[in-house]
């Protein structure tokens, strides 16, 4: 005779099935969010989570060569230099030649070089990071502007600048020495931030 399962076992199985359904629904919502990144006026998303695999894998290689997260900005600045610029910058070139002369591998030389030339490379890396964000912001905001129809424009014009927009504008003005603008609505604030490049540190001038 077939043994009847206790009612508690049936209940537990039903709970597990319900939990699995909720997990699948959550994963589906995450996939949708990753495949269709959006921005709102005055804000932008710069990191694409789908690139995490490449970031982790490449980071593992660099870490194996004795580089750490503290070297990231200097390395970014070094990679942003042109070959001509590397040769023409006497101080940087001397640091690189000295590091290469002392080491058996390029990896070892790179670790020493980033340490010695750190301040200059960090400035270049900081600009390179901002430049990527600026270019990405301009592309995304151009798409946003292109998607605005008459109704959306009227809705933005009917609302004042958001607290986040006002903070960004105030901070940008403080950093760049600009007068605080008179902005009539949320659309005007968005366009002002876009014209300024959402840029609190640089005036698009490479150090």
Describe how the helices and strands are arranged:
Elements lengths: L6 H29 L16 H13 L7 H9 L2 H6 L1 H13 L3 H11 L1 H29 L3 H8 L5 H14 L9 H10 L12
Helix pairs in contact: 3-7, 5-6, 9-10
Question: In words, what does this structure look like?
Answer:
The chain is mainly α. Among the domains are: about 50-130, no CATH class; about 150-205, no CATH class. The protein is built from ten helices and no strands. It has helices spanning about 5-35, 50-65, 70-80, 85-90, 90-100, 105-115, 120-145, 150-155, 165-175, 185-195. α3 packs across α7 (about 120-145) and α9 (about 165-175) runs parallel beside α10 (about 185-195). It is flat.
Large-scale geometry = flat
Written as H for each helix and E for each strand, in order along the chain, the element string is HHHHHHHHHH
Instruction: Report the end-to-end length measured between terminal Cα atoms.
Output: 84 Å
Beta-strand portion reads under 5%
The unreliable regions are 30-46
Report the structural category.
mainly alpha
Number of strand segments? 0
> Helix count?
10
Query: What is Rg?
Result: 26 Å
Oligomer: single chain
Biggest β-sheet description: none
Q: Give the rounded overall mean pLDDT.
A: 79
Fraction of residues in helix: 55-70%
């Amino acid at each position: 005779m077939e043994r009847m399962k206790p009612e508690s076992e049936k209940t537990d199985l039903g709970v597990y099935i319900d939990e699995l359904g909720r997990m699948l629904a959550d994963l589906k919502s995450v996939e949708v969010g990753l495949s269709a990144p959006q921005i709102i006026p005055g804000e932008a998303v710069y990191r694409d989570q789908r690139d995490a695999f490449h970031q982790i894998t490449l980071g593992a290689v660099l870490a194996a060569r004795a580089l750490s997260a503290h070297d990231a900005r200097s390395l970014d600045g070094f990679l942003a230099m042109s070959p001509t610029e590397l040769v023409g910058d006497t101080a940087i070139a001397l640091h690189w030649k000295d590091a290469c002369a002392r080491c058996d591998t390029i990896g070892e030389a790179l670790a020493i070089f980033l340490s010695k030339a750190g301040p200059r490379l960090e400035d270049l890396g900081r600009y390179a990071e901002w430049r990527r964000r600026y270019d990405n912001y301009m592309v995304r905001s151009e798409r946003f502007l292109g998607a605005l129809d008459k109704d959306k424009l009227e809705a933005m014009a009917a609302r004042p600048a958001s607290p986040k927009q006002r903070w960004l504008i105030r901070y940008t003005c403080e950093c760049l020495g600009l007068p605080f603008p008179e902005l009539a609505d949320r659309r005007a604030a968005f366009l002002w931030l876009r014209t300024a490049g959402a840029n609190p540190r640089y005036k698009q001038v490479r150090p």
